[in-house]
């Protein structure tokens, strides 16, 4: 039988426990929140296509002993930064001979004193396996919200641009040799595509959130002014920057919900481009007009028409997967497209049957209640006098894509409380 606890120990136990608790609570309260890494900019990777497709890649055959300097505008800022380079669609290892990050200047230059050498696992040179991304080691660089940074990659050996982003709406500079640390590059060529660069991350406060714009060319910003950050996700980033909420553009020009070609179909890339983003809280889905419009054009000569029920089934898959991960999903109505691309070789993109499908899809997006919220882009940009057409003031001129003014009107129309669900 055990001996009884002495009474003097019983008398001391409670005061000692209270004292220890009193010491522990202030220490716990004073512990700062652990920072976390959040993407502040993305460009969804695409596989390079061959010459049988109607559109050119706008890429060189290869890079060899060349530096590519690419500029990106971040959404939220931070004092520590890292970069993601992607070999997602490569069938051979990708060798990066050197990589630098800096604040962007004008015409391919960088801001003096801001250049930072990037390393990967402590090494300045990295070989990225086929199919893989690679994150750089963090560097200290004070990057303000909505500022522009330049990422310079040196490609020392023959390197086909197998992983790229077709519609960058941003000028990249290409020059001979390793110019990654040069303030002003001696450029031999420029590109309006992106190669290998897929994300920029900043160290942010724990719990920092992001919104992903998941779509096609209307999200990617086709026909927006080059080097002007005039896409609708850019304008949305300006609205949310003061709240420390990142906006990530996961648009791919030519993207479709159900089919591949200019990038994987939406169901295939939703995990990588949306759900895998750290801190993602909401996603806006604006995609489907290419599913409807491509058949019967040089873009998809042999494709059968896409009916509304098939598109709706695709949206339901995205909704289910977003909800399973606790991500709020907002549906966006498809914008008007009467007369789209009629002055181009893509004639036939629009017809009355396709318009009926768009109206059926939009009615479901608005009225089904299956998305967590809806943003009615169709109502914002359509011409009141001809609802199947875009309002002239918002039309870029091709009758499919808005111009800069139209893109800003789309961003301004988004209800931030509905988008985030907590305001």
TrEMBL record:
<protein>
    <submittedName>
        <fullName>Lipase</fullName>
    </submittedName>
</protein>
<dbReference type="InterPro" id="IPR053140">
    <property type="entry name" value="GDSL_Rv0518-like"/>
</dbReference>
<keyword id="KW-0732">Signal</keyword>
<dbReference type="InterPro" id="IPR013830">
    <property type="entry name" value="SGNH_hydro"/>
</dbReference>
<dbReference type="Pfam" id="PF13472">
    <property type="entry name" value="Lipase_GDSL_2"/>
</dbReference>
<dbReference type="InterPro" id="IPR036514">
    <property type="entry name" value="SGNH_hydro_sf"/>
</dbReference>
<feature type="domain" description="SGNH hydrolase-type esterase">
    <location>
        <begin position="213"/>
        <end position="409"/>
    </location>
</feature>
<feature type="signal peptide">
    <location>
        <begin position="1"/>
        <end position="29"/>
    </location>
</feature>
<dbReference type="GO" id="GO:0016788">
    <property type="term" value="F:hydrolase activity, acting on ester bonds"/>
</dbReference>
């Amino acid at each position: 039988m055990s001996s009884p606890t002495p009474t003097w120990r019983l008398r001391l136990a409670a005061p000692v426990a209270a004292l220890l608790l009193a010491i522990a609570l202030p220490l716990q309260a004073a512990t700062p929140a652990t920072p976390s890494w959040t993407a502040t900019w993305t460009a969804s990777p695409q596989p390079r296509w061959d010459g049988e497709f109607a559109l050119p890649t706008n890429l060189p055959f290869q890079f060899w002993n060349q530096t590519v300097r690419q500029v990106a505008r971040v959404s939220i800022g931070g004092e520590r930064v890292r970069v993601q380079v992607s070999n997602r669609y490569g069938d051979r290892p990708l060798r990066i001979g050197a990589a630098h990050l800096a604040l962007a200047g004008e015409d391919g230059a960088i801001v003096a004193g801001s250049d930072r050498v990037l390393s990967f696992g402590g090494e300045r040179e990295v070989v990225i396996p086929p199919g893989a991304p690679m994150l750089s080691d963090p560097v200290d660089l004070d990057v303000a919200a909505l500022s522009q940074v330049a990422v310079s990659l040196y490609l020392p050996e023959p390197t086909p641009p197998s992983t790229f982003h077709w519609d960058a709406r941003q000028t990249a500079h290409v020059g001979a040799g390793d110019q990654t640390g040069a303030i002003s590059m001696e450029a031999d060529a420029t590109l309006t595509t992106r190669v290998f660069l897929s994300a920029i991350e900043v160290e942010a406060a724990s719990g920092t959130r992001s919104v992903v714009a998941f779509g096609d060319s209307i999200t990617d910003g086709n026909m927006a002014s080059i080097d002007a950050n005039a896409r609708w996700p850019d304008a949305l980033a300006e609205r949310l920057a003061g709240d420390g909420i990142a906006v990530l553009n996961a648009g791919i020009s030519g993207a479709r919900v159900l089919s591949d070609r200019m990038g994987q179909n939406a169901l295939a890339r939703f995990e990588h481009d949306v759900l895998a983003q750290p801190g993602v809280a909401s996603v806006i889905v604006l995609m489907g007009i290419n599913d409807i419009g491509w058949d019967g054009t040089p873009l998809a000569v042999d494709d059968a028409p896409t009916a509304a029920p098939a598109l709706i089934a695709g949206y339901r898959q995205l909704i289910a997967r977003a909800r399973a991960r606790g991500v709020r999903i907002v549906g966006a109505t498809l914008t008007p497209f009467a007369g789209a691309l009629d002055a181009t070789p893509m004639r036939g993109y629009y017809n009355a049957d396709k318009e009926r499908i768009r109206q059926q899809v939009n009615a479901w997006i608005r009225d089904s209640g299956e998305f967590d919220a809806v943003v009615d882009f169709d109502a914002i940009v359509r011409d009141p006098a001809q609802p199947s057409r875009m309002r002239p003031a918002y039309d870029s001129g091709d009758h499919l894509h808005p111009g800069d003014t139209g893109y800003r009107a789309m961003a301004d129309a988004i209800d931030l409380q509905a988008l985030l669900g907590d305001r």
